[in-house]
From TrEMBL:
Residues 130-262 form the SIS domain. One of its GO terms (biological process) is carbohydrate derivative metabolic process. This is RpiR family transcriptional regulator. It holds the Pfam family SIS. CDD domains: SIS_RpiR. One of its GO terms (molecular function) is DNA-binding transcription factor activity.
Length: 294
């Protein structure tokens, strides 16, 4: 949900608001998903205002109370989840109006801005903390289903190259979670899931947590289901003018985590990568010369 259902109304009324109301209004504008999911008291804390200010904002907008604002956002989020079909229709209309190049430019510009957000201090702090946990783990379980599978597998591949004992819970043959049978607090799980959240991912992460396995969540909100289970949460933006949410920032996070873990491992990672190079050479894995067609 890129814009909340009250966005236009709030913008129109913004100049008539006090500074406290404006702070509350900015929160509602900037965090529409959190408005639907968090309590009013928690939202007020994050906005830096008193809970009563949230109620006054609702009344300033002509509503009975703040619960009306929360309900409107919850309804909008449910409607947003239902529909790839609805979103592709909106994309097609915009694409027809503005052209293919405009859509491509919007998507690429959006992705560039989203990747840039990952270099903010709070995001960097979480990346370093996640890498520290990965480096210290006995085993790493990587989990991601549907659109989240690719970044999870990419992280697994990088960690494996660097010599870490990484296990991909990819459910081939329906036995993905079976590998958790001997998991413990010495291990760590990395799970990727964004809206619309895949039920099985949450259930497997919850099961691992019951076994004492700490969770690193790569997800789209601090109040997402995975974030509620996690010891460390890496928030990746997913908004896109396309009908499908973007996973590009999640791929970037996977690559950064893999690089950090390899660098922290030092000589051990170097030895593992040397073994990979030796095996690749022995098996003639990589194309060295390209034969030109006659």
């Amino acid at each position: 949900m890129q814009n909340g259902p009250l966005a236009d109304q709030i913008v129109q009324a913004f100049d008539t608001m006090s500074e406290q109301l404006r702070a509350a209004a900015r929160y509602v504008l900037n965090q529409p998903r959190e408005v639907a999911l968090l309590s009013m008291r928690e939202q007020a804390r994050q906005a830096g205002v008193q809970p009563a200010t949230m109620t006054r904002l609702a009344k300033h907008l002509g509503l009975a109370g703040y619960e009306d604002i929360r309900q409107l956002h919850a309804d909008a989020m449910r409607g947003d989840v239902t529909g790839f079909a609805g979103r592709v229709g909106a994309q097609a209309k915009s694409q027809k109006l503005k052209g293919d190049q405009a859509l491509a430019a919007d998507m690429l510009g959006g992705i560039a801005a989203q990747v840039g957000q990952l270099s903010q201090p709070q995001s960097l702090e979480m990346l370093v903390e996640a890498a520290r946990r990965l480096g210290a783990a006995r085993r790493i379980y990587c989990l991601g289903l549907r659109s989240s599978h690719s970044p999870a597998w990419h992280l697994h591949y990088i960690l494996s190259l660097a010599g870490k004992h990484s296990i991909m819970l990819d459910a081939v043959g329906g036995i993905g979670a079976d590998a958790l049978g001997s998991a413990s607090g010495e291990d760590v799980m990395v799970a990727v899931s964004v809206l619309p959240y895949t039920r099985q991912t949450i259930e497997i992460a919850d099961y691992a947590g019951e076994a004492g396995v700490p969770l690193i969540a790569i997800t789209d909100s601090l109040v997402a289901p995975l974030a509620q289970l996690a010891a460390c949460t890496l928030v990746v933006p997913t908004e896109s003018p396309s009908f499908l949410h973007t996973m590009s920032p999640a791929f970037v996070v996977a690559e950064v985590l893999g690089a950090l873990v390899a660098g922290q491992a030092g000589d051990a990672a170097g030895a593992a990568l040397a073994a990979v190079d030796h095996q690749s050479a022995a098996l003639n894995t990589h194309l060295k010369t390209r034969t030109k067609r006659p």
